[in-house]
Write the structure tokens for this entry.
Amino acid sequence: MIRRLIPLLIAITLTACNGVQRYEPDRFLVAEHHAIPPAKTPPVTLPQGYRIMGYCCDDTTVYTIAASAGQNRWEYSLFIGDSLQLDAPKASYRSETFIAMANAASGGMVAIGKTLYTGLLSEEIFHDRLYEQPDSPCICCWNITNSFDAMFFFGSLPADQPANVHIGRDARFIFNPDDSVLVLHTLLAPSVAVYSLDGQLMGEHRLTSRLYGKPMPFSIEQSHNSAETLKFYESNTLFSNLYYDNYRKLYYRILVLPREASGDGMTFGEHRHWVLIVADSNLRKRYEVFFHDNIPTLHITPEGVLISKYNETEADLYLFD
């Protein structure tokens, strides 16, 4: 009976929620089975045995963070190459400090002028449990002229980050080149935090959905149970990626809804619905779009937003406003 009510409750929620506009995807659909542009890869050839953790480019240079397996741990290096030539890196640096860059692939990475901003794997620097110190910095600014010193650290978890959920550091950021700001977001916090390039907090903005539900208390460190950890991720609403669309001056945030659980509460259905939250360039929410497919990958193009659900080469093209 409960399972039959879930689609009805979602439909009711989508149609009227205190004036918040919610739409079905077809309203914005432009074309189906649109070709996805080839994936970007760092235009450098790394030594054998290295695994790319993250990279970014400016007009002339590509910065690639890569890891190689050491005797007892991963070792991290920063490779600097000419972005105009497909050749080997022109310089490379290896240091314990680059362990802090290891989270760049998921935490964020951008080169601006003579500085490099990366997500911060702080526990390697502070030697503590990140999620036990919510005020630990989430972003590092590096001097990339010649010394590659860490210039300063900044960025705290949003104020509404649930204090009773500990799943490790989940902070990430994106760069808005139009306003020259970094926007920090997490899997759990309904709000996002905006920082200037000199590390000053400019404000927090709630960018969430009425379908968001506060997650149940959980500690991945105390659980030590893969089934319980899987259950947490599958049965709670979690935020996924945040995007900035510089063609249309919009932000897109993904909220992933829980999967439908079986009677034992430990196995889950195949599909997982999600909501696309659309906001203007000032992070003011405009509307939501409810998708019935699994978690997507977004590709932002001049023509619109490609949302892949078929395979790695095709996607549906949407145009949001």
In short: The helical segments are 2-15, 104-107, 123-126, 220-223, 226-235.
